[in-house]
Structure formats: structure tokens, C-alpha cells
Write a structure and sequence with these properties.
167 residues
Length: 167
């Protein structure tokens, strides 16, 4: 007994050799999924991408605060060398090593965000995709790509493999 072609199982239709312009079946919606569901799942994923962007900014904040603390220490050392040790010590005591939020350095803020909100958001988005589109990622974007691209034109290939094969 022969095994079914995985592209047939995933997409509900075979990827025909005569149709190399077909999108990756892993990004096509399952046949039983309606367009409204694809759009809604896409919006959940888009919301997660915004949270991912915010997470990146939070990491940038973490890095910048660390850099500011190090640069401040250097500046205060120079203030001290310039004969302003009392002022340098006062600022050093107030700011160097200070919590950015009550009881937290920036690394703790990042960890709290990652372990709480961000992890919960990622898991919730995954559950939505699993239940509604078989776990497939970027189904909405794939359908939008198919709708918007110019079939057969270089630079508008359906998949990376099609682009690199020169088709």
C-alpha cells in the first residue's frame, strides 16, 4: 500500500508538478476553514507580533538602562577626578545600581514580562492556531500573498524553492 503524498494530506489537494506556482501547503488554510476564521486567526497572530515588537523594545530598554548605568559610573569617576568627589559620591549613591521599578532592575522587568504576559500570549495564540487552522502559521498572510502577487512573474514566486530553481 502506498503512502499518501503529504502535500495532499496537508492542503487537501495535490501539488501538481505542472503547477509549480502553488503556495506551500503548510501555509494554506485547511479545506474546511472559512475565510472569516482565517482572518480572525490572522488578527490574533498579528496582535502577538505587536507584543513581540513590544518585547523587543523592552529588551532595548533593558540594554539601554544598563548602558546608561555604566556610562554614568564613568562620568562620575571623571567628575571625581576633576575635583568634584563630593558631588560624584552623592549622585553615585542616588543613581548607580538603583532599581528602575520598585524592587527591580531592568533584567527582572524583562523576566517578569517574559514569564507572565508574553508566555501566556504566545501559548494562547498557539492554541487558537491549533484549534482553528491545524497549527499552521501565517495562513492569512499566505492567502493575502496569493491574492496580491502576479503569478508567473519573477520576484512574485509562490515559494523560495520556486525562486531559486529559476522557474
Amino acid at each position: 500500500m502506498t503512502q499518501p503524498d503529504p502535500t495532499e494530506v496537508l492542503a487537501g489537494a495535490p501539488a501538481l508538478p505542472s503547477d509549480p506556482d502553488r503556495p506551500d501547503p503548510a501555509h494554506e488554510p485547511p479545506p474546511e476553514v472559512d475565510e472569516a476564521t482565517v482572518v480572525a486567526v490572522g488578527k490574533v497572530t498579528a496582535a502577538l507580533e505587536v507584543a513581540d515588537h513590544a518585547r523587543g523594545m523592552l529588551y532595548a530598554f533593558h540594554r539601554l538602562i544598563g548602558r546608561a548605568d555604566n556610562e554614568l559610573q564613568d562620568a562620575l569617576d571623571q567628575l571625581e577626578d576633576a575635583g568634584h568627589g563630593e558631588l560624584a559620591d552623592a549622585v553615585r549613591g542616588e543613581l548607580v545600581g538603583r532599581n528602575v521599578l520598585e524592587g527591580r532592575w531592568s533584567f527582572q522587568v524583562v523576566e517578569d514580562f517574559d514569564d507572565g504576559y508574553w508566555t501566556t500570549f504566545r501559548e494562547s495564540e498557539r492554541v487558537v492556531r491549533e484549534r482553528l487552522v491545524g497549527g499552521r502559521r501565517h495562513v492569512y498572510e499566505s492567502t493575502m500573498k496569493e491574492r496580491n502577487r502576479t503569478h508567473g512573474r519573477r520576484g512574485h514566486e509562490a515559494t523560495p524553492g520556486e525562486a531559486t530553481s529559476g522557474k
